[in-house]
Amino acid sequence: MNQHAENGQALSESWHVALKGMVRHYDGPPAVQALGPIDLTIRRGEFFSVVGPSGCGKSTLLDVLCGLVRPTGGSVRFESKELRGQVPDGIGVVFQEDASMPWLSVRQNVAFGLRTSSLSKKQVAERVDHAVSFMGLAQFADHYPAQLSGGMRQRVCIARTLVLRPRLILLDEPFGALDQQTRLLMGDELLRLWRETGATVLLITHALDEAAMLSDRVGVMSARPGRFIDLVATGWPRDRDSRIVSDPEFGTVTARLWSSLREESLKTMGRAA
Amino acid sequence: MSGLALEDAQSRRTSRRRIRAFDAAVMTLLMLALWQAIGSWTRGVAVSPPLQTLLYLFDLLRTWMFWDQAAATLAAFLAAFALSALIGLGLGLLFGVRRFTGEVAEPILAGFYTIPKVTLYPVVLLIFGLGMSAKVAFGVMHGLVPMTLFTLGAVRGLPPVLIRTAKVLRLSPGRTMLWVLVPACLPDIVNGLRISFSLSLLGVLIGEMFSSQRGLGFLLVSGMAQHNVPLSTAVVTVIVIVSIAANALMLRLRGLTAHRTTGPARDAPRAEPSGRQP
Amino acid sequence: MTRRHAVLLVRIAVLAGLVATLEICCRIGIIDPLTVIPPSDMVASMIDRIGSGELNESIVNTFSTVGLAFMLAVGCGTLAGALVHRWSRLRDVADPLLASYYSVPTFIFYPLLVALLGLGKAPLAVLGVLSAAPAVMIGTLSGLDGVSPVLLKMARVHRLSPARTLCWIVLPAALPRLFSGFKLALSYALIGVIAGEFILSGTGLGYAISYAYQSFDNRAMYGLMLFVLLVAVIANGLLYVWEGRLARRRSTG
Fold first, then answer.
1. Closest C-alpha to C112, from B230, B214, B116
2. Domain B50-275 is in which class?
3. ipTM of predicted complex
4. Nearest residue on chain C to B48, judged by CA atoms?
5. Which domains does chain A have, with CATH numbers?
């Protein structure tokens, strides 16, 4: 079962990310359990979404997956290497908050990721130009983030992740602050990105329709401590876009997601009130 | 389980408060120790040590001379502060409401704030002569502009939706100012008063230090001239204590007004306007 | 942009008008020449004095002291600010101190400083530092607070070393507020030093003004005054413009 990826690394399985019995607690007394236990494998090149009630630990899951925090128990493996609080090579992250740097232009922002790389100036410029035009920002390449809308700033963050040619892309509610229509269009962009780069994508979102529309599989998380209570396979073709909402299956998927999620959401609401 | 969590949070807060109190006590002791060190190291030539100063202060507070001087400073200061506050408030409201005038005036005011006003003191003396009016003028020179700028900023920062609400409720300009503008801007206005307070005091004291026959500033300088170090140190101590106390009081005041006023995100003022029936 | 121009024009007109009114009042005699001299005379006096070179020593003295105080304030202030920011326990102690620091008229310590350090540059420099350093510290704290946590997360995702995180992320993000602190520090240092020279000193521009006043040399006094005020306004103005330029690129409008 040996497969060789583009970069020549030998893989023993076709899974890309695997969590086994992963548990994560918040620091400091008392140690509240935020997540887990979680058992999950994500296949290489899969588009996987995570939905769940607020506060269930979705963002913590992302922190664990990219190596920003160590799990308190269990293991997290990315490309057969165990993650232990270190961010490995090959992962790109797009955060929920605007992480564009206001003192750099769009082009400089996008090039930021390559500052520590050993690429030549010419290669950097090539990659930056490609990412900038891929995300539709060519017109604004010399503008500053303050002059752009929220959606465009997120596109800058995505472009910045792109130039690194990540093999795994993690997104934490990247379109949360945008209006519905912009979100649908950004969803299309994300699909386009996914197809072109062939990366594995993990999207965290609170929008069920977004998850249902974009993903190969959707994981439904319970209220805190978050565990996966349902895994829904959508079976969409690879070259899909937002018009899939008109597919009758779309309604079924969304309905199933909600039926699994509704009770957990009520639990969370009750807790908050 | 939530009960336990609540208890934990409370115990964390009390322990934090205890740590903070402890640290504050340690800090105070360190500062007193430093004061003592400087005092004894210079053999009382520049600063007299804390205990000696305290004893001297107790005696000083019983002399009529001290209170006479303090009263002179107080009178000048109150006049300067009152003028700065009232004129500053008025100008600030005017400049805040009339946008164009405000934009013209603000850099001029800001510029005035940054210049060494002490260089203008001779002019003040030439115009007002020696005496209290010069001190008051100097105090106003220091305290007026910050009050204006703070009020101006407060009015400018008012969410426009509040004014729209006032218009929809058909409030007269006077009522809009009194029932909406001032309450909404109150925390920033109190902040301006706080800054204006210290600066008016500074102005009056500097005026006294340079040329006056009465006042705490004069007492300070004459103490140095007579090499009466405990006197100077005692006067400085009094001024420091009064300043910090007044500042703390005003911060408290600001805190009180701040949570009665709504934040920038809220839509309608929670103050009386809509509740009062004609 | 026309509104900005309109505002600028009106402002210049207002200032010009005030100066013109003063000039006329002095010339006519409404204002006693023994009190205030006409602005044109002030300018002439200033130019004379600078041209003759008699001010050179004072200028060098004052500005070198201000410069020294400013550098020390910036150095100590940023360092102290960074340290306090790092350790929250230290910060809990420092915050109330900083909040009430400027309520105390720092100037009252000047006679004590003179008694401690003698007449000369030292007490002036110390006074300048005492006036300016807390502003830098406050600016540093504010700037470091303002570094968005998501940028720090991003730095870790990009696996930047701590040094690089500091230079590439923290400093640029904190710069606007840091700079505001520096701007305040310069004006406080200038004010402190000149006030000190004015009240109690043997050299410097502040002393020169005070001396001219006490010698009843109005012309000299006003010329010097004008010079000091112009320098203050121009220095602060330049920093203000620079600050505006920093902020404009990054402001969310």
1. B230
2. mainly alpha
3. 0.85
4. C112
5. 45-70+82-90+166-273 (3.40.50.300), 100-165 (no CATH)
